[in-house]
Amino acid sequence: QVQLVESGGGLVQAGGSLRLSCAASGSFFSINAMRWYRQAPGKQRELVALITSGGATNYADSVKGRFTVSGDNTKNTVYLQMNSLNPEETAVYYCAADATTRSSPGRPVRYWGQGTQVTVST
Description:
Strand content: over 45%
Number of helices: 0
Radius of gyration: 14 Å
Structural class: mainly beta
Oligomer: single chain
Largest sheet: 7 strands, mixed
Order of helices and strands: EEEEEEEEEEE
Helix content: under 10%
Distance between the termini: 40 Å
Shape: elongated
């Protein structure tokens, strides 16, 4: 099993920045990729950014140039630096990890964190 704990959310003014963290712990063989999603009230959860174990990254078009995802494999932690935030990005931000475990050694299973609230004020 994999436990994911997000932190770093909070209230920020429009144009401001926040840095989210997601720490993975538990018993797993490997984490193939970690993703950041967000879900605004009344909207579907959307993928914001991902980073693979090899360091490859990908972003939603709406955040390219403003958000940066990075990881520290030694700490099993991924970060999301968010700059130039706007009120429409108010949402709960979730971390997800695709991990192989003893119960699923050959097929990664996706695990989710509890989410962290990001509120961007006008």
